[in-house]
Design goal:
Blueprint (H helix, E strand, L loop, with lengths): L14 E3 L11 H8 L14 H15 L3 E3 L2 H9 L5 E4 L2 E4 L6 H14 L7 E2 L5 E8 L6 E8 L9 H10 L11 H6 L19
Antiparallel strand pairs: 1-2, 3-4, 5-6, 6-7
Length: 208
Amino acid sequence: MCDCGCNTCETKSTLMLNESLAPRGILSEGLKHHMDANKPLTDHLYRAGSDSYFNLWAEARSLYSRNILEITNEDDLAVLTETNLGHFGMFEGKKVPLDFPMEDESINEAKKAKKKNTKKLNKPMRDSSGGKAYKVYVKDPKTGNIKTIRFGSGGLRAKINDKKARNAFAARHKCSTKKDKTKAGYWSCRLPRYAKLLGLKSNFGGFW
């Protein structure tokens, strides 16, 4: 149908196949649909960002570059001649689509996911796995990786308000020598310092 609706004037096709160079049978169903419906590629058949969406643009670009496909729609031509939509490249070790703008919603979701997966370092917390009472995330200075350190005897009540018990623990475990944050002993010796984070009551903030 023509744009004016009279059904008498001719409307030039937005997509035309040069069948002297290639048969119609090589076309994908998506490209055939756009051609039969006289529908520009920029009038999306597939969800933007889907595999089918990128494959359609890659197919059209390949055929257009070989003069197999003639395209008259200005928006379609702009995409094919001024962008690399449909092609992919590598960014920070990941395959990403070229010239495909990220929607704000996608960016926000990525930020939420990153925030959700972010570990709070050097903040001890209660733990219910591995037979230990507490855990803490620390960054290993040697590798740069985040490690989970579990410490404290599960099921045993910490005697952080008992001065004799604290002194005995500190002497027995040589707490004054514990300097390595990647070791359980470092955190066990400093348990009173993080009492509030662990839901414990203590007025003492040093070693055991």
